[in-house]
Amino acid sequence: MNTKISDSLFQRAQQRIPGGVNSPVRAFKSVGRNPVFIKKAQGAKLWDVDGNEYIDYVGSWGPMILGHAHPAILDAISKAAVDGTSFGAATDREVEMAELICTIMPSIQMVRMVNSGTEATMSAIRLARAYTGKEKIIKFEGCYHGHADSFLIKAGSGAMTLGVPDSPGVPASIAGATLTARFNDLSSVEKLFAEFPGQVAGIIVEPVVGNMGCIPPHKGFLEGLRKLCTLHNALFVIDEVMTGFRVALGGAQQLYGVTPDITTLGKIIGGGLPVGAYGGKKEIMQMVAPNGPMYQAGTLSGNPLAMEAGLTMLTMLKHDPSIYTMLETRSAGLESGIADIAQRFQLPLKQNRVGSMFTLFFTTETVKDYDTAKTSDTKLFGKYFNEMLNRGIYLAPSQFEAAFMSAVHTECDIDKTLTAAEESLKRVFGK
Ligand SMILES: *Cc1c(COP(=O)(O)O)cnc(C)c1O
Q1: Is 136 found in the same domain as 209?
Q2: Catalytic pick from 56, 239, 261, 369?
Q3: Cα 113 to Cα 117, 147, 239, distances in angstroms
């Protein structure tokens, strides 16, 4: 594989951008190679600056559920741009967007738009604290909720991949207000409520974890969290930045039938432009300025291009439920193909999948939380990643990420992926 142009760009990038990238795992550090620089994308495919073509399972880390450069979304963005790219004033599109989100997710009665998932979770936690008058929050080991101070405690995603789950620079006083429990373990949460009586403002959770690889919730886990929050007057925050409009149109809360107090959204909601949102019960959202005293603002929030892209995306998803059936079928096909390879060659692998989110773990343990995710052999994953990339399959460059299927991956793409996976796995395991 020729990567001459990517390599020279990376040399230049490292001089002027920390690590040569604007988000850590893009550097491919944990898989031991230089990153490829992407030139363009269309549908399920990516092309790098050296002209290599890939079938993409990153999908911009989630948003591209309808594939790259979808004509309807491009059209919406360019039409909106003609009327101006930002006003810093109220627009009709924001009203439509808020109404649409509230119909898709009935637990949301009011919603505030922001510019990223990080902003959404950061604001949601401030809101939980403001509303309850309490300070502590409970998060789960290995869950990632963006890079705000309160969440870089046993954090997943790039923080886990690069071995910095507790980042320096986070004040001890802030870190101390974040309590961590074990995913899929209600008793670890009960213990924290008992240890810090009357002090917990809320629980935040990835309902299906994507950021230590894909980990589904055990039956009763999310319902149990809901009950504990109600019992202890704490708010239940479901972080659907990744799962929203992904595992079902109405997100994981629809799939598992749980009702949060606050939901955070990102990724798909922006149709590929930078958007986040947080919303919930009216009574709680009334706390947000200018209605209430909890301050939160944004110069570019509700940006016209981003709203138009997001509205177009959500409208297409809402009007075609067959998209989710198709995503399920294709993803299940890929999963069973990999399972078949693993079985034929007796390979020590485990897979987790919820709809179009999935991860192949290089371990023999059932992956259900941070500790079991950590049993994965990341060196073997690194080899697999490289073998797959060389065969034109673009996976997330970390064991601790979910892969995403899009609505435009074809049977042919999946067959090619399975052929590449068989060759790659045989080489990784020397079979
Ligand atoms: C990606 C992600 C975030 C952070 O969103 P950004 O837009 O990257 O700031 C937060 N929570 C979850 C569950 C995510 O997957």
Answers
A1: yes
A2: 239
A3: 10, 18, 15
Same domain for 418 and 293: no
Using a 6 Å cutoff on CB, does residue 302 contact ligand 1? no
What ligand 1 atom has the least distance to the C-alpha of 118? 9
CA-based angle 188:191:196, to the nearest 5? 130
- Provide the 3-class DSSP secondary structure of residue 157: coil
Long-range contacts, stretch 7-14, CB < 8 angstroms, 24+ apart? 7/34, 9/37, 9/49, 10/34, 10/35, 10/37
pLDDT per position as a tens digit, 180-227:
999 999 999 999 999 999 999 999 999 999 999 999 999 999 999 999
Is the Cβ–Cβ distance between 206 and 239 less than 8 Å? yes
Where in the sequence is the domain holding 210, given as residue range(s)?
Answer: 71-319
Residue 6 · residue 34 · CB < 8 Å: yes
Q: Characterize the bridge pairing of strands 178-181 and 45-48.
A: unpaired
With a 6 Å cutoff on the Cβ, whether 241 touches ligand 1 is yes
Domain boundary (288, 319, 350) is at 319
Residues 6+ apart with CB under 8 A from 136: 177, 178, 179, 196, 199, 200, 201
For the CA of 157, the nearest atom of ligand 1: 15
Ligand 1 pocket member 278 (CB < 6 A): no
Which pTM was predicted?
0.97
Ranges under pLDDT 70 in the chain: none
Is the domain of 152 the same as that of 289?
yes
**Residue 211 CB less than 6 A away from ligand 1:** yes
Helices 411-428 and 322-344 pack at an angle, to 10 degrees, of 30
Same domain, 349 and 305: no
Strand order in the sheet with 45-48: 38-42, 45-48, 53-56, 393-394
Instruction: Say which amino acid occupies 203.
Output: I
Nearest-CA residue for ligand 1 atom 15 is 242
